[in-house]
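Sample intake sheet
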Amino acid sequence: MSIHKRKVAGGVRYDVKLRDPNGRMYQQTFRTKKEAETYETNELSDRARGRWVDPRGADTPFGTFATEWLASDPSKRPSSLARDETIVRVHLKPKFGKHPLGSITPKDVQGLVNEWCKTQKPHTVHRQHSALSAIFNAAVEGDLIGRSPCRRIKLPAIPKKKAHIVDADELVTLAHASREGTRPMPYVGTVIGPRWGECAGLKVGRLDFLRGLMTIDWQRTRGPGGVMVEGPPKSAAGDRTLAVPKLLMDMLAEHLARRGLTAADADAYVFVGPDGGPLDYSDWYHRDWKPACKAAGVPGLKFHNLRDANITGMVAEGVDMKTAQTRAGHADVRVLLGIYAQATTEADRQAAERLADRFMRPTSADRRSDAG
């Protein structure tokens, strides 16, 4: 008999004592025999169907499990880990940190989302809810709880906002307003399309001036606490060698020459901070990028918007989708494209030259400069 009756000061209690699949004893206490019998029946039924969850797992404090979740994915990018760590520390632990996982309900989650909506943008609310949902999904997968409380949560609508696509005139100003150590970065970001971390991690030895190629196989990104970390791209698709148009190669050659660098300086960074050292994102953003964007009349522009311009430009210029996907370093591509489409060397070269024609043709600013 797994149900045991015992007397207490206020009457009686019914203890249900069972063994888990590993033979360890656990128990739950109820006020009525009917509640105890229902619990026992459900436990045995779930176990027979392979749906049993150890009830003791639900007692794990949310904060404890959230910390374990942060350390559970070694493949996560440092920048993504830093973002999730901040969300857990600032927005989740203060609310749920000491609460047992099993005690948090959809009503609690909806209440937290509603609080966020009062002070934060919809995109931010979605990102924070996504992290919270991922934590609870991991708890479900780990058999700590039966189902996630993040179900059927009403989230704010995200307004559709069209990203600004820079043009040739804006690129001229962005480049001229940038610091000496980063001046060609806006052109590289737009014509080639690397992520900021891939630009920051680019080294002289990855530029092949004879063949007009750039190899992207290293990056500098922000880790937890804002500390810069380095490493290879997250996916195999991110490791790529791309054709670079002659105009941009000449610009990069002049950039390196002004810094006194040659091919012998293979391990030197192409883009550096004011002290000549590797780029720090926060310093670059506040002291270089923001002033340059203001000068170009595009305040609020993100470096990633240059990547948007790159991809938009390839589509506008008729570059085939497989070549565009390869140049962008995207691992996620439709199955048919992955099976039947092939990015050829010639198509890659055409893509590079078309982007140069689109973004590096003589501009009105150049013509005024020549006239002067």
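Comment: The beta strands are 3-8, 11-19, 25-30, 207-208, 213-216, 219-222, 228-231, 240-243. The CA atoms of residues 256 and 262 lie 7 Å apart.
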